[in-house]
Structure prediction request, 209 residues.
Amino acid sequence: MKGASHALAGTAIGLGTAVYYNLEPAATGLVMLLGSTAALAPDLDTNGRLSNRISLHRKWLWYTLSAIGVLIGIYSLVSLSGLFKAGGIVAAVTLIIVPRFLIKQRFMVMLTGLAIIGIGWFYTEYWLIYFGVFTIISSFLPHRGLTHSALGLVIFTYIAYTLELRLSIEGITAVCFFAYLSHLVLDMKALPFNKKGVKWFLPFYSREF
Prediction:
């Protein structure tokens, strides 16, 4: 199923949760946003839709390193000599060419997760640290792997629970649980528009449903 459909389902679950808990307008907006995010969270894995949206695109890092390489190359040609010049030119060429082959979107997702952990650590927001760890681990997983399982659901729900404790807003855990669950249900092979299913019981049982 397309990411927009998952996000719409999560937003609807967020609105329903807000009505059930009779939340204030600001809290309603928050749980709707969390519902949309949780419904997309399983796609933080490799080649997942959300992983490509929350992370910086690898091209920006390519361009940055290439620019640094050009500067190093110019400096080496103008100001250095002998082995230092040769070493500078090699370093410049390496920075210009190699990142395009080595730096993939998975690396950018991991880098984003590290940034999230850093922000959480700085502000002592443990839920943010947990989400950063979840993001990093997800970046190493194949699509429709552990993030698309009951284990992924439990872990993400715990992260939501720590956020609910932090903000003291009822419904955060519930909306994240049901929104995440909606993604897994809508990705099941039993539905006619899905060619692949969900391995609910990974890592213990790998059958698709």
